[in-house]
UniProtKB/TrEMBL annotation:
Domain AMP-binding enzyme C-terminal residues, every copy: 433-508
Keyword Iron appears in the UniProt entry: no
Name used for this protein in its record: Long-chain fatty acid--CoA ligase
Species the sequence originates in: Kribbella jiaozuonensis
TM stretches of this protein: none
Pfam families hit by this protein: AMP-binding (PF00501), AMP-binding_C (PF13193)
Taxonomic superkingdom: Bacteria
Amino acid sequence: MRLVDYLDKGASLGPDAACLTTDGETLSYAEVQQLSYRIAGALEATGVRPGGKVAILSANDPIAFSCVFGISRAGAIWCPINPRNEAAENRELLDQFDCEVLIYQSAFAPLVDRIRDSLPKVHTFVCLDGEPTDSDPDPHPSGRRIVGWDAFSGGASQPAPDLTDPDDLAMIVGTGGTTGRPKGVMLGNANLETMTALTLMGYPFGERPVYLALAPLTHAAGVLCFPVLASGGEIVIMRAPDVHAFLELIPRHGVTHTFLPPTLIYMVLAAPELDSTDLSSLRCFWYGAAPMSVARLEEALQRIGPVMAQLFGQTEAPMMISILPPAAHFDASGNIARGRLSSAGRPSPLVTVAIMGADGALLPSGERGEIVVRGSLVMRGYYRNPDATAAASAYGWHHTGDIGYLDGDNFLYIVDRAKDMIITGGFNVYSTEVEQALMAHTDVQDCAVVGQPDEKWGERVVAVVQLQPGSLVGPDELIAFAKARIGSVKAPKQVLVWHDLPRSKVGKVVKPEIKARLATG
């Protein structure tokens, strides 16, 4: 299935049903369908052909998300550009992905103005929600057009039915770029169809789900929309992250499904109105994108309800490498399965997961090594980067870069990112294990553990913590707390308290930035 097929499937279940809702205004399935036809026709008139690359630079917005379906209907390839990127990174991604058209919100016009002259491959710039100050509907001598939304889409006619292959490329997504130049992950329609099938197989849906999207639609929150649309559900889009508004919208719209990274879930748990909010409509509250504190997860199960649902994946194998549905958080007697909460669940039904040693040999149950994956969920490769593609697919498996193990019941445990493992005094210390120990302290809201050079130990374990508002707990108490749980070898030698931790565009803690700050004092 193509991306637009999920929209059309939902429309077949009721064209007048609510599709996209934002700020109290709703577009029906029929309205989003018609909008997708207009966008496809406008792209066709602009010269975009099947296989062309079209980028969207926008915060969460219903019209911007509708453009995804117009791009797909035209047989083009969606290139989501994160609005939190710096201008130079966006310029690099747009050029690297060979984008022809850039659709952007007016809020990002200053950014676009800075990089436009260095994007010779982009022939059309479209302002999504207004008229650019230097708009010109006619091509420049260079062949470029800078147009507003009405000029772009107003005269578009419905294009002829396309005959694109359902297995064509659907999107190119940039990796985070925190460890070097970002790469373009090529995801085909078949990859996203597998992800959608696994979502529908693994988690409770039912009829007409209501999905609340707070996290950026350019990432996990966006691709989780496709199974919702295929079920004829409604997507409530939040334009900006606001935990208090998030809690208010759940009972107002009868939200059944939502997704947040752990950092935002910690903020939900800290919200004073949480316990008085009616969350009875929730069926599935996904968490993922980063490790979650076991202590906070247990708190969420008690205060939010038995609806927490983990998903583990990465851009190269989206969302569903392994799953831990709500019921799996409890044992047969109905009690919280505490020993299982630190796992990433079991490998998904259509995915093969193994643990590999450095020599390419697969390791037995219980042994730690790199998590490797096979199946139709795995990307086509990195766009125009055969060396990176070959490295990621060595020995015939996709290499995740995560260290983990499978237990005797085939539950997957992620120990650390390979690059984040600390070797201190000859012992391997996994940063996530130390983070879990510190997060069990009620005064710790979030933390990150890194290794720092040390003359005696080679590396010393250093923890940077963000405390709960009003907390006065000191570093010595936190070190003693960790020692009591994981021993003196693994416990941090140093604890620093910061007001906040540096985070990526999707809310992940950026450990290279922490290391850089520590190196400069």
